[in-house]
Amino acid sequence: ARDIRLAVVAGDGIGTEVVEQGLLALDTALHGSGVTVSTTDFDLGARRYHATGETLTDTDLAAIRAHDAILLGAIGDPSVPSGVLERGLLLKLRFALDHYVNLRPSRLYPGVTSPLGNPGEIDFVVVREGTEGPYVGNGGAIRVGTPHEVANEVSVNTAFGVERVVRDAFARAAARPRKKLTLVHKHNVLVHAGHLWRRTVEAVNAEFPDVTVDYLHVDAATIFLVTNPARFDVIVTDNLFGDILTDLAAAITGGIGLAASANINPDRTAPSMFEPVHGSAPDIAGQGKADPTATVLSVALLLEHLGLPEAAARVEKAVADDIAERGTDRVRSTAEVGKDLAARIAG
Amino acid sequence: ARDIRLAVVAGDGIGTEVVEQGLLALDTALHGSGVTVSTTDFDLGARRYHATGETLTDTDLAAIRAHDAILLGAIGDPSVPSGVLERGLLLKLRFALDHYVNLRPSRLYPGVTSPLGNPGEIDFVVVREGTEGPYVGNGGAIRVGTPHEVANEVSVNTAFGVERVVRDAFARAAARPRKKLTLVHKHNVLVHAGHLWRRTVEAVNAEFPDVTVDYLHVDAATIFLVTNPARFDVIVTDNLFGDILTDLAAAITGGIGLAASANINPDRTAPSMFEPVHGSAPDIAGQGKADPTATVLSVALLLEHLGLPEAAARVEKAVADDIAERGTDRVRSTAEVGKDLAARIAG
Ligand SMILES: CC(C)[C@H](C(=O)O)[C@@H](O)C(=O)O
Ligand SMILES: CC(C)[C@H](C(=O)O)[C@@H](O)C(=O)O
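Above: the input record for the complex with 3-isopropylmalic acid. Below: its predicted structure, written as tokens.
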């Protein structure tokens, strides 16, 4: 009998509410499979920060490392200075656990209303780099608060870091029917970083000769995401462009209430982390209004990553069927959606 | 009698084609007004670069400075290494002439089909910072082409630079009926730059107490641009976020064929520059297929900037009427659209 040790970081705002339904889906999907789940709750986020001043201690991190995977709800609260929890907790986890593949699938499920009038078939995945770029925290400011303040932010890109994520993206593209990879960057302006990305994609392409490659500047990519999203199969891009594009991708496929993500350490030197793309949504927190579907779909990515593709498929099918039959109307509460999905997963 | 000395940089690809129609619109709008236009053509772009290796010399720049305004078509060609013309010419003009307000209005004209199913009323303007941020060219790489390459890009933000563009954006917001300003940044990750922007907006707000301010992370802003663009009135943002958001804004309002922009030096220490948001579109260059509307609308911004609001209004009305009557179908050639617009401007 296999036991999955799952670290649970419910986090802030609607995090707790959606994670509860994610765990229900997980348990239900594994019921009778011989695989069990042991969860450890980590009290991290705004409450802990206010109580202790801590965001993520070395002890927390060591304890999380002893798990097979992490399920995360959402991080961030208006009561905490902007950036403290995001950088001190969420990004610290991604960086410390070397989550260099931030995987964000975008699919327009039948039954979902897209804000696009004529969306066509949307089914692509964004491979967002997770450990470099402008997210490294390599910035600083001088003369803060004076008329002579200078605030810099440095985007750091390494051959090592770009190559490994590009290779992962190629492998994903090669495994998909259309076998198409789009690099998104802005190499006409960010020439140093951009040319590293470009050269790397060209070089790795030799290992995946059946994958077709194209390139878009990030500004043009946003245009195609609303005029012809069907053109995308796999997108590979840097940390910041990936952040922006995946929110837009979520929007055109029915909203961040449906968008799942996986922060993957493909080398498995540390647990990978699964989380909805949406944030903590303080405006609707505690009201049972949050849609747990994105978290449930993140659980499907978790099952996939842990080598349980059948259970993963069952979870994803439950979501697809639920949406197809009932649409994404906001009449059901968080718990009701969770219960409906669990019932479908149970079959 | 007033004469406007206009520097014309048609540039690459469809640049020549659209600029020709822009000039026709300009001449027509000023016909009989007593204001004349003297143009100087500047041979800048891919052809010049291939012939001489030059992008923009000090002599070119000095000659351009002696003008009242610049009309620019498009810069960039696949035959030139990426970044050379963009940075050596287009961005050099913006930086050297201190175009710190990159103004990009977004309006959904009646008759235009938006890719959004239910766009609502779209009428906002993006004030994009034009002389700082990740566009400063302050990057570099070491060990290029080796497995140990590191490529950095630095975003530079100064109190001086942020404050002047924020003040301009507030003034524009104060002059509009809704009086609403949205700051777009990513201050939960880019904390140093982000907090400078945030503090500056808070401080300048005191000078414009009747302007309502809100804030969106750039990723969330892309969501609202497709789910509720009517929420925006004036957006102020950094150079790179502005680049991305304005292409998306163009897409939802009918495409970059319609999106105008102005690179403004509000202190008038150098000529301002007017250009369509679209690029040189090498795929359709020379075929008479390019829509000159964005350039004609940029001419309206030029007239406005030169203190000729009546002529500006006539040009904008011609575009609005043309679109309302004929839609944005691509049946007409570049020259036909230009002729139709000129006829309407002539009244
Ligand atoms: C909360 C924030 C730091 C985070 C990011 O920017 O990566 C979020 O927007 C995301 O996309 O997961
Ligand atoms: C061509 C390119 C350098 C330019 C930019 O990034 O500013 C363009 O995309 C724009 O928006 O005017």
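Notes for the reader.
The mean pLDDT of chain A is 97.
The first strand of chain A starts at residue 2 and ends at 11.
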